Amino acid sequence: MLALSPRKIAAHGVLAPLFALVLAPLLGAHPADDANDAAAAIHSLQHATAARALARELGPIDTDEADISLKQLNLVVDAPWRVQIRPQGPNYIPVLFFFPETKKDWRRVQIVRMRLLEPGAAGDSLIWEDTAAGAPVFGRSATLGFEGRQLTAVDGFGQVSGELDLVQEKLDPASPQAPWQVAGIDDENRGWHVILRLPIPRDLWSKDHQAAAVLVGQVDYKRLDKPDEKVYTIRRKLFVDVDTDGFPTFDGWRYYDTHLHTCAEYDTDLSIKAVRKSYGGPIQMVKESAYCVGMLEGTDKAKHRVITTDHNCFYSDDELVKYGPTAQGAWQEPIRVEHPEFTPYFRQKNGKVALRGQKEYENYLDHFGITTGEEITLYKQGGFLGLISGTLGSHMLTYSSRHFMGPFHGGRFLVYKFEDNPNPLEVVLESMAADLNFKRGFAYAAHPFSESDVERNLLSAFNEKEVKIALKGEFIRRIDGQNKDFVFKGWQGWNGKNSRGLSTNTILPDRTLALLEDPTWHREWQAGQPNWDDNLQYGLFQFHKFLSDSLAFSTRAAPDVKFIRKFFFSGGTDAHGDFNRDSGLLARGLTALPAQIMRYLKIFSMSDNAFGKVRTYVDPTGLLEGEKLTAEERALRAFAHGHSVVTDGPILNFALDANARFDSAPGGLRWHPEPAFENEDGRIGGDGNMDGARTMLVAAGEPEVRFRYRWKGASDFGGPIRRIEIYKDDAGGAPRLVTRERNTGPARMLEPQGELDPDAPVDPSGWRNERLGEARRPGEPVETPITVACAISLGGFTERTDQPPFDFRCYTNPVWAVPVRLVARLSGGAAARGTLAPGALEVKLQFPISMQSKPCEVRVVPLDESGASFGKGIALTAVPGAGRTNGWSKSQRHGVADSELTVTNLTAPIELGSTHSGTRFCIYLRDPADAHGNALNAVAWLVDLGNL
User: Fold this and answer.
1) If you average pLDDT over residues 529-548, what whole number do you get?
2) Dist CA 598 CA 606 (whole Å)
3) What pLDDT is attached to residue 75?
């Protein structure tokens, strides 16, 4: 969808060259590396005087056109990029006709004709056509056999009609068909839209391969403010994959696109200083597309299931569309809000309440429930350069949380109107942690990673200060006086997939319109972008560095209590109503630049990114206290706790068994000689208090740590996974980006520490297993024993081709592992006559993190002739003493509170050599808990007491 979005264009590297060209000369500096794409412009902007002239051009310019690049109305025709065929139906392609704006000198337009066509070698074949002058005309398409007479119309409220006489000379509000009809667009019905459901012919339902539908939507209209007798035409060619397979699935899991913008993003400010809005999709089209691409079972299932993250600035004013369910009650006087307890969130600096914005927000809660979110623009200073330019402000995604008032920028941005931004990162997170109306709200940083200093300090990526606040901040929700949960959860590091794309100037409006209609003729689009994942790889590198640096966190109140601070990785498309493909246009002031300058600025961009192409797949099946929640609440909590993977196609899941020779289940606690995966000691993500649950305790250096993993692919998403990489981030480690040769040339990628075999034998449940010590890099063994705290995650990849989309992949969130070191010693002469006297054996268990100092059971169990443990063995007793609680004490070497447990055989002797295994025993610890009370797995060691 054509959008004027500074954030989106920044992601394409367009604003960075502009900053380098305009502001660097003003400071007497050379243009930064960010200006590579605009190298030609550097020669024409050598002097500061030229730069200042360019800056002046960003100021107010008198123009009759609100969209200078197109010289006509911004109309949207859209459809989802894929439709999943369901055996029971309904199976259809929803085609959206959306009039998102009115604008200066285009306040009123008359709709002349609407059409739906199928292009073909012999020309366009008509499916449906309607004019103001007559009844609709229906046809049958030549290629796939779409029947126009089977069309139904859906209005913005989800009401369905079989009457397709939509275009009227004059609208009769009393007509039963009025909700679906249109005569023209003006300020009273701005945002009007209709969705045509085009049934997919049944013979396409049974095909075992993907079919491709190509449609053309067309609208003809006239201007009424300045009649010129010209009929303007907008056409969009839409490419829709008809797929008999759904997305790959595991039982009970659920898909989210975690970053989506809807038609809340609207503004009528037509001044040259106004940021033009990235007109997001109408919410009924969001529901239609979520169903068709395969993320919902029906359009009526969107509440609590589809995530929306509209920019907070659009709920902070009184601007909104006048058509559709999001406007209900917002244009009535007086405005009646349903939640007066939310009103303080909508209070402006002058004390006035943005009631219309609050009503719109409440309407979203009615439609999307707990998955209603926001993208918050954070206050950003930007250093010395920011004093001149202002900043766009970093962005953060909040979910199931309160609203935050604020502008679209970081406080001031270029020539845009000055507004205070009251939302520094720490203020937002503190407010979320303390809020009583949204007790489960949480946040992820939005598209936070960039190598560009300009984007980090002036645009929407996180800067160094914000990263530090996010990593080290103590923004903790407290319940009953106890620390419960961090509200900042992680990093949305996968922000769309642009395997095809182009960027160019808008100096030729007809060329821009041709690209909007169909970009496939452009050589840049055809070639694709084989290194589309470069920023994703950089984001993964940063994320894994954060993991390595967050394995011994403490609060200011208890600096010696160390615990793992878990962060999670998420993915979404950042689609601004882009259901078929993405198009973006730089902010309005820049489109008014003189042609001599504008020709060098790639201010118009397109890509194949669209809603649902990048997804976060969550596993709510193992959530603690999940029985107290609804299915929808469980899924959102699973997302908050990182029980998730990110993907554009295949899915991958794994767990870790801390010791394949020890059954850690409460009813087991048994050592056995033959290794086998038995226990999911470590699972993806966190849970419980401070996300400490699901962490794996493991005997330090244990060689029998074992993976249990499974994956699924789909033929339409690259087929099977061909490579599984292991990423192991040790405390104090240093992940690396390395350059590797791919079939499309060299590319940077996160360096793995090993690989798993995607074709290893599979059990009846679809699981494979492999020992961590057997994981290898190609041609060399990997040092894998766990000797320091670490986070382990996987990446799965399909076979790579040399054509877009090149490949498909999945990255898991980590399993965290904590090694426990056992130190045993005997008192002098203790083993006389093959017996360890009471008190002769002392065992010290050393942890790198703090544990709960509760009584714990440690047992010494003998082994039988096969090497299996038998009997209950002997319980060891906590050693008392100063500074110890139940045997727990502070590490003298590392200063970590409650990180050492000392026990002894105080009450009973230990007989040596009385079994066939001689002096070998199993020592295990059961029912340990971390410092926040999270139950962790039992852990065991094989110890030869005769050799101490």
Assistant:
1) 98
2) 18
3) 84
Say if 67 falls within a structural domain: no
Residues contacting residue 682 through CB under 8 Å, at least 6 positions apart: 655, 656, 658, 694, 695, 696, 698, 792, 815, 816, 817, 937
Is residue 568 a contact partner of residue 685, using CB atoms and an 8 Å limit?
yes
Helix (H, G, I), strand (E, B) or coil at 917: coil
Q: With contact defined as beta carbons under 8 Å apart, do 606 and 582 qualify?
A: yes
pLDDT value of position 692: 98
696-699 and 815-826: which strand pairing?
parallel
Look at residues 777, 799, 817 and tell me which one is the last residue of a structural domain. 817
Q: Are residues 714 and 593 in the same domain?
A: no
Residue 227 has pLDDT above 80, yes or no: no
- The CB-side HSE value for 305 (13 A sphere, CA atoms) comes to 18
Residue-number span of the structural domain to which 369 is assigned: 76-531+573-613
Are 511 and 377 part of one and the same domain?
yes
Model confidence band, residue 12 (pLDDT cutoffs 50, 70, 90): very low
Which has more pLDDT, 13 or 784?
A: 784
Do 780 and 708 belong to one domain?
A: yes
CATH code of the domain in which 828 resides: 2.60.40
3-class state of residue 526 by DSSP: helix
Q: Do 779 and 870 belong to one domain?
A: no
Nearest to 569 by CA among 372, 793, 756, 731: 793
Q: What is the pLDDT of residue 268?
A: 64
Same domain, 343 and 282: yes
Residue 33 falls inside a structural domain: no
H or E stretch including 572?
A: strand 568-572
Number of domains observed in the structure of the chain: 3
pLDDT tens for each residue of 356-380: 999 999 999 999 999 999 999 999 9
- Pick the closest to residue 667 from 927, 852, 868 (CA basis): 927
Question: How far apart (Å, rounded) are the C-alpha atoms in residues 84 and 80?
Answer: 10
- The reply to whether 24 falls in a domain is no
Q: Which of 182, 184, 115 is nearest to 148 (CA)?
A: 115
Question: Is 623 domain-assigned?
Answer: no
Q: For the chain, what percent of residues have pLDDT higher than 70? A: 86
Read off the pLDDT of each residue in 882-891 and give the average, rounded to a whole number: 95
Mean pLDDT of the 725-745 span = 96
Query: Could you tell me if 493 and 608 lie in one domain?
Result: yes
How far, rounded to the nearest angstrom, does the alpha carbon of residue 885 sit from its chain's CA centroid? 43
Looking at every residue in the chain, the average pLDDT score rounds to 88
- Residue 586 CA to residue 600 CA, distance in Å, equals 13
Measured at the CA of 77, the angle between CA 75 and CA 83, to 5 degrees, comes to: 160
- Other Cβ atoms less than 10 A from the Cβ of 540: the count is 24
Query: Residue 737 has which token pair?
Result: 């980006």
Give one word for 669, left, alpha or beta, with left for phi > 0 and alpha for psi -120 to 50: left
Q: Is residue 269 over pLDDT 70?
A: no
* Same domain, residue pair 588 and 732: no
More confident position, 508 or 358:
358
Nearest to 941 by CA among 661, 572, 594: 661
Given 817, 833, 866, which residue is the final one in a domain?
817
Q: Are residues 764 and 809 in the same domain?
A: yes
Q: pLDDT tens-digit profile of 92-127?
A: 999 999 988 766 667 789 999 999 999 998 999 999
